[in-house]
Design brief:
It is built from 9 helices and 15 strands. The chain is an alpha/beta fold. The strands form 2 sheets. The chain has a 9-stranded mixed sheet with strand order 14-13-12-11-7-10-9-8-15. A 6-stranded parallel sheet has the order 3-2-1-4-5-6, with helices on both faces. Helix 1 (10-22) packs across helix 8 (282-298). The longest helix has 20 residues, at 306-325.
Length: 331
């Protein structure tokens, strides 16, 4: 198959390397969509064709495009490629605003292309174990969900100035709500649809940012459960965790330590559902891409659809609105 990678920042380079690993003989084109004044870009990346405009990007026509530009550019590029009948992998979040998304979905329906949104935590093995345990009813009915993620932004991308990163710049879709919307995706995936959002967020650290760096979000789920999601870009010790509280027990997930534990009210003891295996972080990205490639070949719906991406963005933007307006938002 022919592949097109749109944008070549850190995540674009990761997908490029993983694609080379999975499909060594694939034809890959890299489309550099923006360049800083005076910046030079190699004309040859491991013997891969590089282009700088849409017409060159689609000639010859790729079978698949991976859109890895900043979020505000996703939908416009996706619409143009979708009209050409090209299957799309779009990095999370689907966009930074709702404008243009319904049009993209209309084009998808007409052309019958596949679209997957890159929420890679769906491919974290131990998070799958937590979901499976909850789905079996190990803790009864879920009544509360607590998720947390935090890491010091200057340590996200070693060797780069965090102040120039997408994460730190509002015009590029930065801030904790959009950058860390993984948590909103996976709690919805595990606990069910979300009906309302309340949030508090601000730039509260000493980091030089133009965006919010800390947020607390309260969620209400269709099944009546209440959730709390904490997002930050300031913690000096990285954390990613989830706790599900049910009528008959508790399940905890440590995404950094790669552990899942279950407390059963029936037995009154904790047990390990997953022993930490030290899985490399990149494994999630590899499995995510491998899954999408298999979906393309088999013409089946991917795990994270465009509709999923749209719904998570609706919830994320509702949290932003709630923080600004200091009120609960129905979604």
């Amino acid at each position: 198959m022919r592949y097109l990678i749109v944008g070549f920042g850190s995540i674009g380079k990761r997908h490029f390397d993983n694609l080379r690993n999975l499909e060594p003989d694939a034809e890959i084109t890299v489309w550099h969509t923006r360049r800083s004044p005076g910046e030079t870009v190699s004309q040859d990346i491991n013997s891969v064709r590089t282009v700088y405009c849409f017409m060159d990007a689609i000639n010859p026509r790729p079978d698949v495009a991976l859109i890895t530009t900043p979020a505000p550019n996703h939908v416009c590029v996706a619409q143009d490629l979708a009209r050409e009948g090209i299957d799309l992998f779009i990095e999370k979040p689907l966009s930074s605003e709702m404008s243009g998304i319904d049009k993209l979905l209309e084009i998808q329906k007409r052309t019958k292309i596949l679209i997957m949104v890159g929420y890679n935590l769906r491919f974290h093995p131990s998070l799958h174990i937590l979901k499976e345990s909850a789905g079996r009813g190990d803790i009864g009915r879920i009544i509360s969900v607590r998720a947390e993620v935090g890491q010091y932004l200057p340590e996200w991308r070693p060797g780069t100035d965090y102040r120039n990163s997408v994460s730190a710049r509002k015009e590029l879709g930065g801030g904790v709500f959009l950058e860390l919307s993984h948590e909103l995706d996976y709690v919805r995936w595990i606990a069910g649809e979300i009906t309302s959002v309340m949030a508090q967020a601000d730039h509260v650290s000493d980091l030089e940012l133009g965006v919010e760096d800390t947020a607390e979000i309260i969620l209400r789920f269709v099944n009546g459960a209440i959730g709390n999601v904490h997002l930050d870009m300031v913690q000096r010790s990285a954390t990613r965790s989830c706790k599900l509280i049910g009528t008959d027990g508790v399940i905890t997930w440590d995404g950094i330590g790669d552990s899942v534990r279950l407390y059963s009210a029936r037995s009154g003891v904790w047990s390990d559902l997953h022993i930490p295996q030290g899985i490399p972080r990149n494994q999630m990205y590899l499995e995510e891409l491998q899954h999408f490639i298999s979906c393309i070949r088999e013409r089946r719906e991917p795990l994270v659809t465009a509709l999923d991406g749209k719904r998570v963005l609706e919830i994320t933007l509702a949290a932003l609105q709630s923080s600004r307006e200091q009120r609960c938002i129905s979604v």
